[in-house]
Amino acid sequence: MHERTPETHVIDFRAAEQLLEARDPRGAVQLLDPVISAHPENTAARLLRARAFFAAAQLRPAELEFQIVLEREPDNAFAHFALARTLQRANRAEEAQRHFRLAAALDPRPDYLAAARFGDSPDASGGTGPGTPGTFGISDDAG
Description:
The protein has 7 helices and no strands. By secondary structure, the protein is mainly α.
C-alpha cells in the first residue's frame, strides 16, 4: 500500500462525500477511516463519517461520532439535529427531543423548529417530527 499524505486524505474525504451522495455509505466509511486515524481532530471528517454510519443504519457508531463532534463543537446545530435523528431512529425519543430542541435553539431553521415541537411531549407524534426526513442527508432511508 502506498503512503498516505495530506493530499490523499483530502482526495479520500472528497471521494467519501461523493460516495455518500451516491448512496454508498459503507464505501464512504472505508475511505474515511484512514483519514480519521491520521487526523482524529478533523471534525468535518467525523461528521461525514457519522452521516455515513447513519445512512448505513449503524446507529451506535453514528451516535458516538456525533457525540465526539458535539464535545468539540457544542454549538453545532446540525450535529445536534443529526444526533437527535439517530436517537429517534433508535427509539430513544426523549433523548432525541433534547437534541432537536438544542438544534432549534442554536439555529431556528424551519425543519429544526418543526422537529423540536416546542410545547409537545417527546412522544407526541410517535417519535417522528415533521420535516425531518432527508434534511442534510439525514433520513430514515438506509439506502
